[in-house]
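FAQ: What does a multi-protein file look like?

Like this. Sequence, then tokens, then the next protein.
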Amino acid sequence: MESVEFHHARALLEWQVELGATDAICDAPLDRYEAPATLPAAPAARGATKEAARGAADQRSGPVAAQPKDAPSPVAAATAAAAAAQTLEDLRAAMAGFDPCELRLGARNMVFSAGKPGASVMIVTEMPSREEDRTGAAFPGETGAMLDLMFQAIGLGRTQERGGLYIANVLPWRAPQGRDPTQPEIAMMRPFLERHITLADPKIIVAMGNISCEALLGQRGISRLRGQWGTAVSRPVLPLYHPAYVRRNPAVKPAVWHDLLSLRSRLSDG
């Protein structure tokens, strides 16, 4: 049998997912037009016990993976793993090895952070873009250039030794086809985000986009929320348009400038 190169095989699988084939049913193709080789099991006798009937149903449905009753929920497991991290490197390792989040299995790279830990402003963005997933670097290319222009206008940059910016994601892995993360996925990774904020210790958080606002403030609607200060992890939070959105919609630049001035004023007051 001819072997298939990894990225070719992955592209074929992604194509099937786009067509809606998202679940593996059997190890081999099944011809559903062919008559069954055996007749289905007869129903349980009228006098059979409930336990016997349940056992027969289990045999017909095939083996089912046992779920430990005392297994913690993904959110509880994330909370425990995040709390155990004493440094940013500990947190990176804990997130990289967090089995309940299956997004990491389909992503090429984990995008943990960028900029200077301890910076005055921490930007929390949504999840890696296609280019970020490919390179493992946060905010490359034209979107990164727009980010730099936005914050350099108020004297902040990713490479500054003092003040400056620190950047992290709500989810550090790209979802398949770039879809939005689900609410369970956001809830599962929120403890890591909150611990990330605590360890990075910024004065102010900038929440870029709807997903970041949902994770930090429990709300969506960036056009309504932008410019209105909130609070998360005991720090002021400013919702702001994402640079990718600003690139696509130049008409929002006056609103972005207004919000950046509000950020500069808040930093000056602090």
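And here is the next protein:
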Amino acid sequence: MKKALFYLIQFTWGALQNLVGFIGYLILYKKCEHEHFHNSFITYVPTDKPFGGVSIGIFIFINAKHDDGWRHDTRIHEYGHTIQSVVLGPVWPFVIAIPSVIWCNFPPISKYRKKNKVSYYKLYCETWANVWGSRFSGEKFITDDMIEHGRFGKPFYKDQ
């Protein structure tokens, strides 16, 4: 029942982002490896481009060229964005996707983050994705970067 409700909400309340994600999934279906992860669909994109991962509704796209630990933590993080999509529905693109894309890709902000050593996870929607991704997947982060900086740029787990 929970699974059916999850999909019903995603494809009604979050229809816009899931339609876009589904189109991306179909385009990459034959070219890439895929896996199912807690009601989401992950596509591993083999690319040398500076791309980490993106969640578009239940469809998650991750750069396949990173190591296993990085991919593990990125799955959890991107799944957090999937859960945000369930809650926010049609406002998800404005509250999560657009700020996240700007924070990640806008050159002046990228330069600022690098120059001032500001964690990518300092932005509200990125920390929120980490918290919910870990909570709703039941999995823990394993990379040093995520453990040390995954919650507003500070340690993710309270015992650190």
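Q: Is there any per-entry metadata?
A: Some entries carry free-text notes. For the entry above: Residues 3 and 39 are 7 Å apart (CA to CA).
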